[in-house]
C-alpha cells in the first residue's frame, strides 16, 4: 500500500473509525479533511440489500439535487431539425443528429449526458457499444428519451442526476463539491438517500440500506448512519 502523505495522515486522524456519523456531521467533516488545490467532488457510496442480477431488485432512477451538482454538465441533444431551436434555448451544449452520430461512431464521447427523442432511438442502437460502457445511452426511465427535450435539458442543467445500483449492489453518486457549504452537501445527500429509501424493491429482504459512506475525490471515507436520514 502506498505511504500516506502528511496531509493524508492528518485527514485520517480526524476520522473516528468507531463512530457512525450523521449526514450533517459527515458533510462538515469531509469539508474539513479535504485538502486539494481543485474543487473536489463529494460522493456517496450506498450499499443496498438487493441482488441487482434480479430484475425485480434493480434500483435505478433519477433525483434532482436541491443545490445542483456544482458541475458544469455538458449535454448533447440528438434531435430532429424541428427540435434544434428548443434544445439550444434550453442550454444544450451540442445540438444536431447525423453529424454527432458520426462523431460518436468515430469514438467521440466528450459529453456528460445525451438527450434524445423516441423517433431517434433506433439510430442509437448500433452505438450501444460506445455509449453503454460510458453510461451515456439515453433511457426513457431516466427522462433522457422524451418529446419534451427542453425540459429534459434544463432539468439536467439544474442538477438532475441518474443513478443505478452496480453489480455489487452499490449506488455511487456525486452530491456536490467541497466548495459547497456543509448544509448544501447534507441537503443533497439526504435528497439522494430519501429517494433510494422510497425506491426499495418489494423483493428486497432484510436490511435494505446496509452502509453509506461519504468521501471526496481525495479524502478518506466517512461512514454515515442511514437512520439519520
UniProtKB/TrEMBL annotation:
Organism: Pricia antarctica
Example GO molecular function: rRNA binding
NCBIfam families recorded: rplA_bact (TIGR01169)
Signal peptide residue numbers: none
SUPFAM superfamilies, per the entry: Ribosomal protein L1 (SSF56808)
Name the record gives this protein: Large ribosomal subunit protein uL1
HAMAP family: Ribosomal_uL1_B (MF_01318_B)
InterPro entries given in the database record: Ribosom_uL1_bac-type, Ribosomal_uL1, Ribosomal_uL1-like, Ribosomal_uL1/biogenesis, Ribosomal_uL1_3-a/b-sand, Ribosomal_uL1_CS
A GO CC term attached to the entry: large ribosomal subunit
BP GO terms, sorted: regulation of translation; translation
Family the UniProt entry places it in: Belongs to the universal ribosomal protein uL1 family.
Cited function: Binds directly to 23S rRNA. The L1 stalk is quite mobile in the ribosome, and is involved in E site tRNA release. Protein L1 is also a translational repressor protein, it controls the translation of the L11 operon by binding to its mRNA.
Pfam family, one: Ribosomal_L1
PANTHER family referenced in this protein's UniProt entry, alphabetically: 54S RIBOSOMAL PROTEIN L1, MITOCHONDRIAL, LARGE RIBOSOMAL SUBUNIT PROTEIN UL1M
Subunit: Part of the 50S ribosomal subunit.
Keywords: Repressor, Ribonucleoprotein, Ribosomal protein, RNA-binding, rRNA-binding, Translation regulation, tRNA-binding
Matching Gene3D superfamilies: 3.30.190.20, 3.40.50.790
Amino acid at each position: 500500500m502506498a505511504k500516506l502523505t502528511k496531509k493524508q495522515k492528518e485527514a485520517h486522524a480526524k476520522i473516528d473509525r468507531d463512530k457512525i456519523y450523521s449526514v450533517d456531521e459527515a458533510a462538515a467533516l469531509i469539508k474539513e479533511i479535504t485538502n486539494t488545490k481543485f474543487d473536489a467532488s463529494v460522493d456517496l457510496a450506498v450499499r443496498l440489500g438487493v441482488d441487482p442480477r434480479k430484475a425485480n431488485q434493480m434500483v435505478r432512477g433519477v433525483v434532482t439535487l436541491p443545490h445542483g451538482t456544482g458541475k458544469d454538465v455538458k449535454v448533447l441533444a440528438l434531435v430532429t431539425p424541428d427540435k434544434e431551436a428548443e434544445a439550444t434555448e434550453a442550454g444544450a451544449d451540442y445540438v444536431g443528429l447525423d453529424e454527432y452520430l458520426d462523431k460518436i461512431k468515430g469514438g467521440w464521447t466528450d459529453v456528460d449526458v445525451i438527450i434524445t427523442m423516441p423517433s431517434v432511438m433506433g439510430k442509437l442502437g448500433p452505438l450501444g457499444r460506445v455509449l453503454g460502457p460510458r453510461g451515456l445511452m439515453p433511457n426513457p426511465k431516466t427522462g433522457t428519451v422524451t418529446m419534451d427535450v427542453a425540459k429534459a435539458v434544463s432539468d439536467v442543467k439544474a442538477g438532475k442526476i441518474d443513478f443505478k445500483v452496480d453489480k455489487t449492489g452499490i449506488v455511487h453518486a456525486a452530491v456536490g463539491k467541497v466548495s459547497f457549504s456543509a448544509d448544501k452537501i447534507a441537503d443533497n445527500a439526504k435528497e439522494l438517500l430519501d429517494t433510494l429509501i422510497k425506491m426499495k424493491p418489494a423483493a428486497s429482504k432484510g436490511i435494505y440500506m446496509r452502509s453509506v459512506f461519504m468521501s471526496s475525490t481525495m479524502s478518506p471515507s466517512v461512514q454515515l448512519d442511514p437512520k439519520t436520514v
